[in-house]
Every structure is written in structure tokens, then in C-alpha cells.
Amino acid sequence: MKRIAVLTSGGDAPGMNAALGSVVRSATQKGMEVFGVEQGYLGLIEDRMQLMEPMRATGMVTSGGTLLGTMRCGEMKTEEGRLKAVETIRKHGIEGLVTIGGDGTFRGAEVLCGYGVPTIGIPGTIDNDLAYTQYTLGFDTTLNTIVRMATQIRDTMASHERVCVMEVMGRHCGDLALYSAAALHAEALILPEMPWDVDSLCQRLERQRANGRRSALVVMAEGAGKATELAPVIMEKTGFDTRASVLGYVQRGGQPSPRDLLMATRMGVRAVELLHQGIGNRVLGQCQEEIVDFDINEALDMPAVFNKELYELVQGLWA
Ligand code: ADP
């Protein structure tokens, strides 16, 4: 294989640039040329790509976001758009494609595999919502950000004896909320994966207050509801001074954590190794600290796994 391309697609995630740099450097070492596709699948459809130069890419590795840009591209879901993407790939003599993104990105890659384009997927999403892997690039950085922000929120909540409902990202997946709540010893946790009701939540907060806990942090996954709607209800039912804090986009940006940088680098190298060996139609993941790869169709069909043990641990920390 002499020429490959790489793209980032879907939501940006810290670590994408490190994966990109790793793909470019390791492919160049193997004598391959790498084209960087701009704005995800849109760049393939509109033929927007450039030859990546490994020597130029120094500062990019530790930066957040994605230097190639990313776009949600509906055209890739149409037959016409897909054919244009394949045409661009053929026109430039591209023999393999590395796609960095989440579930949607891999569905696009799966389609290209169907047209005979070998692809390798690198999981890049802060949500950690890919069932086949224990880890996705960006998750660790975002978890660090949430813990840092929540610690600051807690200072003021404790000073004023308030309750804070802190809403965190994750789309339909509660992992960011679950792992941060466990790390922070949050007083309550609300996830899309588990049933909850406002009365039981209020009773829990009242019980904690009666036991001497003067303030509380309620971690709420965005997939479970809105903090701005829940906070006034808690205030009304309990009389506790309650505030909502929606962390928002601070969770997406920032310098990737060393863990994300390391995994991104390892995954970039592995993606190139596989393509170099003529292996395609795989997605990379992590299992017990090892980088593993799965057939793309099988990986996308795997059912989501919820860490109930960790959920129960959080529930059990406070009476
Ligand atoms: P993520 O990769 O983070 O899950 P999205 O779900 O937005 O993000 O998907 C990213 C892009 O992948 C979409 O904008 C679209 O271009 C492409 N994509 C998603 N689903 C499909 C599909 N079924 N067929 C082809 N392309 C798809």
C-alpha cells in the first residue's frame, strides 16, 4: 500500500490530533503517503484533501480539537454522496482509509468497506459510547475536566449550603456522569441507563441533610434530562437552595490527557500497521490496556454494556 488517507468525523474529541500525527508519521516511515481529508466525509465528497507532511506537524500532537476539521455530513448517508466519496478515493489512488470518530463515523466507514475501500477505525469520542471497546479517545480528558470543574463548583456549594445539579455531556450514554460521580463521591447520580424519579431523589437529599451533609452535588447525564428543569423542582420539593450548572463545551476542548495522547499514538501506529499488512474493515479498541481490533460489522452490532457495579458503588457511598 503506497497511499492512504485519514479523516476525523463526528464530534471532535481530545486526542484526535495525536492519532492523526501518529498515522502520518508511522505511515511515512513505511514509505506511504498520507492525505488528510478536511471536514470528515464532506471532504471526501467534495474532494478536499491535502498531502500531510510529517515534519510540519510538531505542535499539533498535544492540541485539542481536530486540525483536519470535522463536520456532520448528511450527504454521506445518501447513495449519491457515497458514490462521490468513493470516486474521490479512486481518483487519488488512495488504497486505505483511517477514520477517527464515533459510531456514526464507523457506519460511514462500513459503507466504504462495502465499496471495496479498506478502512481502519480509531475510536474518538468523549462519550465512551462504543460497546466493543472499554475506552475511546477523549473520554479521559473530559473526565479530568469534569472532575476539575466539579471541584470548583463544590467549593461554592459547600460555602452556601446549596445543592448543585451538574449536567455533563455523553449524549445517550451515561459513562461520563457515572465515572465522574464515582470519582467525586457525588451525593446523587442520574443516568439514562437507570430509572429514576424526582421524589426518591429528594428523599435521598433530605436523608443526607438530616445526617449532617450540608451541601450536595447531583451529577446528571445530559441523556437523562435537563439540570435547569430539575433544579427548581428539587428546590420546591425540599426547600434546599438548589442551582443548575451545565458544563457545556468546556468538556470538549483542551489539551488531551497523557492517557489520551498515549492511546492515540498507539492506535495511530496500529492502524497503519494493519493497512500496511493489507488488512482493512477493522476498528480499534482497548481491552485490559491492550490495543485490540474487531471486524467493523461485528463491532457495530455489539450491545451496549453498562457498568452496574460502579453505579451501585456510587449509590452506596451515601445513605
Ligand atoms: P460520531 O461519529 O461521533 O458518532 P455522527 O453520528 O454525527 O458522529 O456521525 C458522523 C458522520 O458519519 C455523519 O455526519 C455522517 O457523515 C457519517 N455517518 C453516520 N451514519 C452514517 C451512515 N449510516 N452511513 C454513512 N455515513 C454515516
From TrEMBL:
Q: Which UniProt keywords apply?
A: Allosteric enzyme, ATP-binding, Cytoplasm, Glycolysis, Kinase, Magnesium, Metal-binding, Nucleotide-binding, Transferase
Provide the binding site for ADP: R154
Which SUPFAM superfamilies does the annotation name? Phosphofructokinase
Q: In which pathway does it act?
A: Carbohydrate degradation; glycolysis; D-glyceraldehyde 3-phosphate and glycerone phosphate from D-glucose: step 3/4
**Chain coiled-coil ranges:** none
Activity regulation, in the record's words, is: Allosterically activated by ADP and other diphosphonucleosides, and allosterically inhibited by phosphoenolpyruvate.
Recorded hits in Gene3D superfamilies, A to Z, give: 3.40.50.450, Phosphofructokinase domain (3.40.50.460)
Taking every annotated instance into account, which residue ranges of this chain make up the domain Phosphofructokinase? 3-275
Q: Which cofactor does it need?
A: Mg(2+)
Could you name the domain of life of the organism this protein comes from? Bacteria
| UniProt subcellular location | Cytoplasm
User: What positions does UniProt annotate as the active site of this protein?
Assistant: D127 (proton acceptor)
What EC number is given for this enzyme?
Answer: 2.7.1.11
Residues reported in the UniProt entry to bind ATP: G11, R72, C73, G102, D103, G104, T105
List residues binding Mg(2+): D103
This protein's GO cellular component annotations are: 6-phosphofructokinase complex
Reaction catalysed by this enzyme: beta-D-fructose 6-phosphate + ATP = beta-D-fructose 1,6-bisphosphate + ADP + H(+)
Main location per the UniProt record:
cytoplasm
GO BP, sorted A to Z: canonical glycolysis; fructose 1,6-bisphosphate metabolic process; fructose 6-phosphate metabolic process
Q: Its Gene Ontology molecular function terms?
A: 6-phosphofructokinase activity; AMP binding; ATP binding; fructose-6-phosphate binding; identical protein binding; metal ion binding; monosaccharide binding
NCBIfam families (UniProt xref): PRK03202.1
How does this chain assemble? Homotetramer.
Give a short account of what the protein does.
Catalyzes the phosphorylation of D-fructose 6-phosphate to fructose 1,6-bisphosphate by ATP, the first committing step of glycolysis.
Name assigned to this protein:
ATP-dependent 6-phosphofructokinase
Q: Which species?
A: Luoshenia tenuis
